[in-house]
Write a structure and sequence with these properties.
274 residues, alpha/beta, 6-stranded mixed beta sheet, 12 helices, globular
Length: 274
């Protein structure tokens, strides 16, 4: 038996954004025989895109009205439409570059030794994990970074000092990656570039990349990455489209609150790391 989707209202989100907790029945209802795409479905994991296509096919519903894509594909389409580079380092190349950075003498390695001691180059995976987690939580946005640092400083000593040093190490690594690569250093950085491009072009980069899109649907979330929230925020503030976010029934209420908290920042795509 299929469970119907519940709609969740939040004063922190614009009226054009609808949060669904439960099933994706309403998304299936947009299926139609069409000569153009009306719904852009963004799913971070390929499995979720494949499962949605399978559900549509099993229900004898057409796929014509849907464009299924991952976040980086959508970001790349926006950037290419605006005539900007859509190249980004993959994890293997990023770890290789990170290894080079941590093998040298620079701001990142100096700060690393203060926090961890030892040789920084031996801890590339740990540094990358810290960088990734900070990016997902804050997208390096000034407002979120300020709140993050305040939370760190409010913890008991000496934890506050260690956490503050780790934060500084992570920011130093992100700066070094940006300076050493002509490509976006991560998928998150690519999505941030697309976010700023939507803002800078007053929405035309999105409208030209997806000229017939009436709505965006985000599915398959196990967390609420600030990178994606900022992209949606930019699109909603500049384009005449609806956004529908589908959350699982078990984690949906928690993620819905997290979504409201993450959404409420000005100037999405702005960063503290330069």
């Amino acid at each position: 038996m299929r469970m119907a989707s519940e709609f969740v209202a939040s004063d922190a989100l614009p009226e054009s954004v609808t949060v669904h907790v439960g099933d994706v029945e309403s998304l299936l209802g947009w299926a139609d025989h069409a000569s153009h795409v009306s719904t852009v479905v963004i799913a971070p994991v390929e499995l979720h895109r494949r499962n949605l296509k399978l559900r549509l096919t099993d229900a004898n519903l057409p796929l014509d009205a849907f464009a299924f894509a991952g976040p980086t594909v959508v970001a790349s389409n926006v950037l290419e439409t605006a005539g900007k580079s859509s190249k980004a380092l993959d994890r293997v190349d990023r770890l290789a570059l990170l290894g080079d950075i941590l093998s040298g003498e620079n701001e990142a390695t100096e700060r690393f030794r203060l926090v961890f001691g030892g040789e920084p180059a031996q801890s590339g995976d740990d540094v990358e994990q810290a960088r990734r987690e900070l990016e997902v939580a804050t997208n390096y946005h000034p407002v979120r970074m300020h709140a993050f640092r305040q939370a760190v400083e409010s913890t008991p000593s000496p934890i506050d000092v260690d956490a503050g040093d780790l934060l500084d190490v992570t920011l130093a690594v992100e700066r070094a990656l940006r300076r050493r690569s002509e490509k976006s250093p991560s998928d998150g950085a690519l999505i941030r570039r697309a976010t700023r491009t939507v803002i800078d072009t007053d929405g035309s980069a999105w409208d030209e990349a997806y000229p017939s899109a009436e709505r965006i649907a985000l599915v398959g979330l196990s967390t609420v990455p600030a990178t994606l929230v900022d992209l949606f925020n930019a699109i909603m503030s500049r384009c005449d489209v609806e956004a529908h976010l589908y959350l699982r029934r078990g984690t949906g209420p928690f993620l819905e609150q997290r979504l409201a908290d993450v959404w409420s920042v000005p100037n999405p795509g702005q960063v503290v790391v330069t």
